[in-house]
Amino acid sequence: MEDDDASLWERVLAGDEAALALLFDRHEARLFRHARRLLTAREDAKDAVTIGFFELWRKRESVRLVDGSPLPWLLNTVSNCARNLERSGRRYRTLLARTPAAANPGAPEGPDETGVLAALKRLPAREQSVVVLTVLEGYPDRAAAETLGIPVGTVKSRLARAKARLREEMASIEGAWA
Question: RNA polymerase sigma factor 70 region 4 type domain location, by residue (predicted)?
Answer without folding.
Answer: 116-166
